[in-house]
UniProtKB/TrEMBL annotation:
GO terms for biological process: fatty acid beta-oxidation. It catalyses: a (3S)-3-hydroxyacyl-CoA + NAD(+) = a 3-oxoacyl-CoA + NADH + H(+). The keyword Oxidoreductase applies. This is 3-hydroxyacyl-CoA dehydrogenase. GO terms for molecular function: (3S)-3-hydroxyacyl-CoA dehydrogenase (NAD+) activity; NAD+ binding.
Length: 778
């Protein structure tokens, strides 16, 4: 069995560099090679600068800066032998079959027996790539198609040829899934595979129809945006984001590769005014956000930055205007309401969706193993909210077929097959999908892959209120799910935490705290605190703080193991829940931190206490209590958020023994496994005491903040909040010989919190956050 322990990536451009970084994120050593640039002093210049550039890129390709050290750079002339001990060689060079094949011939001479070679091609079928290469090479060859940017886009399309070794292919798929955390979708060997075949058709149709139907850029983006389940950047905005110069190449490559009868041909023409406009834009450097601007641009005018949009007909920029279609509002009632709306937006939505959905239905069997693969590919590769077949279910297949027929357009057989039924069927706890043969078949999830939705299907929660629920995940493990808006924690969430802390009474032996949402929890619902403060209901507020503390302590001191499974944002109160769990099993993309200072408060549900204890008991940090406290103080007083689970380790939020799961769909299973392992010989934690320095430490912290204030890096009110934080972390009126209990630290938190909530400036911060969704630095 092929085992992947070392990787080589050839081509250090946008994709190659990003793939190398992500392999490094998985902790795997990687060799990165590119050509020797003409006239350069440093022959490995391209690969080296690619790594340096990535250390400055935002969003960061690396989950932790230190991962860059796992990449060994070189060039294809002097260092080709570096691939000799690599188990997987991933080619990501220019999209040209001849150049790619020449490279494979060279690689074949130096690679070790049994190593796998793959191409990251976006469009070229495997059959074309292996033409003329030997049998041995073909057996070790496959396609691994990542999406840009490789760290963040979850789709990984894989394709095997008729001769590809099964075990090599299996090893690649497992590596992509478990180590790289990707949604690995097997595709048939056809041009553009699944994502780009449909995605390129979609973007071509959407832009062309916008022009032909006389919509402005903003109008098109207001429909092929949120209303059709696409990120709000919209279709032209997406072009700006990915680079307008990329489009013509990919389309040209696809046009060459797809069969003559493919409907893509109907929408691509060199003579179309939009093709000419984009060519002119590229020529003039309007390649999108990376260039001078694109369909949108920002310009300075009279000392202000204003946003402008290109007029598709004149090619001139004019101030951006917000589109205001009634149909876009109707979309809230469903996709049908959108495409049936008579206004121009509704007509445009129908034009785009009718083409894209019937194209998907007509092609699915040729390009994919099943309809779910198509949906998953579009959702994870193009960030669509719903896949094409989910959308057809939303519209109703029979209705769609009738409307197409009514317009004299072809109706794909698969659409007819779904008439009167749906592509997805839920029966009790079972989920099945309609096969190409017209029969339903169960969706079998691989071992260790499930979301809470799979537990919830057809079942009732063990306990539930409007903000949170408890589910039975089997084997004696319960899952506590938050489900309020943005998973902001309110009274109901706290109540359910309290309930979860005694689920042993219901026969459970472990608890996982996790959910399927994009964000684990954005923190406490501060609206309630603001309301209370405006009415001067201080006892009510203090009680809310105390109740939250009690619930967290109950979670921590429960007689069974609790494993928090955060993913996405876990901020403020959400972070505090994690800090009170016995262990954390985090998704690699977890953005966690105590951000209360941003709303003029301090972490009052035990966050100050836990971060102090974590840092004070961290035996790896030398130098006594001061450096440990400074670390906690810095994190809290600057509202620091780890931008990955790996970074959260540096902040002591994740401790030794806590785990990181790369694949979002494996997080809960891994957390459950951890919880069960801990349940075997679990003992309740002993109350913790720490020796804290008291006022001497507080003085040092105040001095540090004062320094930031003098440098203009902190506002005066920041120093006021920081002093309250410092007072808690240093232990209040104590000295290093005295032991400070958890209870005492919680008391200090409450005092600090109550002092701050009475301050007008704190209320301004809260109000600003609630209305503007970003912190105010007053
Ligand atoms: P790029 O232009 O950023 O990088 C290509 C790299 O190949 C450059 O660093 C170049 O120096 C190197 N190169 C050029 N000629 C070479 C040769 N003869 N031998 C070895 N290296 C050579 O291109 P990008 O975007 O990274 O694309 C690479 C591959 O990934 C292509 O096959 C592309 O279709 C595919 N792809 C691109 C995506 C994107 O969004 N940019 C997404 C998915 C796949």
């Amino acid at each position: 069995m092929t085992e992947i322990n070392k990787v080589a990536v050839i081509g250090a451009g946008v994709m190659g560099a990003g793939i190398a970084a992500h392999v490094a994120n998985a902790g795997i050593p990687v060799v990165l090679l590119d050509i020797v640039p003409e006239g350069a002093d440093d022959r490995s210049f391209i690969a080296k600068t690619a790594v340096e550039r990535m250390l400055k890129t935002n969003p960061a390709p690396f989950m932790h800066r230190k991962n860059a050290r796992l990449i060994e750079t070189g060039n294809l002339e002097d260092n080709l032998d570096l691939v000799a001990d690599c188990d997987w060689i991933c080619e990501a060079i220019v999209e040209n079959p001849k150049i790619k094949r020449d490279l494979y011939a060279r690689l074949d001479k130096v690679r070790k027996a049994g190593s796998v070679v793959t191409s990251n091609t976006s469009t070229i079928p495997l059959e074309v790539l292996t033409e003329g290469l030997g049998e041995g090479f073909a057996q070790d060859f496959a396609i691994t198609h990542f999406f840009n940017p490789p760290r963040y886009m979850r789709l990984l399309e894989v394709v095997k040829g008729p001769r590809t070794r099964d075990d090599a292919y299996a090893a690649l798929k497992a590596f992509g899934d478990v180590r790289l955390g990707k949604e690995v979708i097997e595709c048939k060997d056809t041009p553009g595979f699944i994502g780009n075949r449909i995605g390129i058709f979609w973007s071509t149709v959407a832009t062309r129809q916008a022009y032909d139907m006389g919509l402005t850029v903003e109008e098109a983006d207001s429909i092929v945006g949120r209303p059709t389940g696409v990120p709000k950047t919209g279709i032209f905005g997406l072009g700006d984001l990915t680079g307008i110069d990329l489009g013509p190449h990919v389309i040209a490559s696809m046009i060459d590769l797809v069969p003559a009868e493919d409907p893509l041909h109907d929408f691509v023409s060199q003579d179309h005014p939009l093709t000419k406009l984009t060519a002119k834009m590229i020529e003039e450097g309007y390649t999108g956000r990376k260039g001078k601007g694109g369909f949108y641009r920002r310009v300075r005018q009279d000392g202000r930055t204003i946003k402008e949009t290109i007029d598709l007909r004149s090619g001139e920029y004019r101030p951006t205007q917000k589109a205001d279609f009634e149909s876009a509002k109707a979309a809230k009632k469903g996709l049908r309401a959108l495409v049936e709306h008579p206004d121009k937006g509704g007509q445009y939505a129908w034009a785009v969706l009718s083409h894209v959905l019937s194209y998907s239905a007509a092609l699915a069997e040729e390009i994919a193993a099943d309809i779910r693969s198509v949906d998953l590919a579009m959702k994870t590769g193009y960030a669509w909210k719903w896949g094409p077949f989910e959308m057809i279910d939303m519209l109703d297949a029979g209705w769609l077929a009738d409307r197409l027929a009514g317009e004299g357009r072809p109706v794909p057989a698969l659409l007819e097959a779904a008439r009167g039924r749906s592509f997805y069927r839920e029966e009790g706890e079972k989920l099945s999908i309609l096969g190409f043969d017209g029969e339903y078949r169960d969706v079998d999830l691989p071992e260790g892959v499930w979301m809470l939705a799979d537990i919830k299907r057809g079942r009732q929660p063990v306990k539930s209120n409007a903000s949170a629920s408890i589910w039975d995940a089997g084997d004696g493990v319960a899952v506590l799910e938050f489900h309020s808006k943005m998973n902001a924690l309110d009274e109901g969430s706290i109540e359910m935490i309290r309930q979860a802390a005694k689920i042993d009474k219901l026969g459970f032996r472990a608890l996982v705290v996790g959910n399927d949402a994009d964000n684990f929890s954005v923190g406490a619902n501060v609206g309630v605190a603001l309301f209370g403060a405006n009415a001067a209901m201080w006892p009510l507020i203090e009680n809310g703080v105390a109740e939250g503390q009690k619930a967290m302590q109950a979670l921590k001191n429960s007689p069974f193991p609790v494993v928090a499974a955060p993913a996405g944002m876990a901020l403020g109160g959400g972070c505090e829940v994690c800090l009170h769990a016995d262990a954390i099993q985090a998704h690699a993309e977890t953005y966690i931190g105590l951000v209360e200072v941003g709303v003029g408060l301090l972490p009052g549900w035990g966050g100050c206490k836990e971060l102090t204890i974590r840092n004070m008991t961290n035996t790896k940090r030398p130098g006594g209590p001061m450096p440990a406290l400074s670390a906690a103080f810095e994190a809290i007083s600057t509202a620091k958020v780890a931008t990955s689970a790996q970074e959260a380790r540096d902040m002591q939020i994740l401790r030794e023994g806590d785990g990181i799961t790369m694949n979002r769909r494996r997080v809960l299973a891994d957390a459950k496994k951890k919880a069960l392992a801990m349940a075997a010989d679990y003992t309740q934690p002993e109350p913790i005491v720490v020796n804290l320095p008291g006022p001497t430490a507080l003085a040092a912290m105040k001095m540090a903040v004062e320094g930031f204030y003098l440098q203009g890096k902190a506002t005066e009110y920041d120093t006021v909040i920081a002093e309250q934080v410092g007072r808690v972390l240093s232990g209040g009126d104590t000295d290093i010989t005295e032991e400070v209990t958890e209870k005492k630290l919680l008391e200090l938190e409450r005092e600090g919190f109550m002092t701050l909530i009475r301050n007008e400036k704190t209320l301004q911060r809260i109000e600003h956050m609630l209305t503007k969704n970003r912190p105010l630095r007053n």
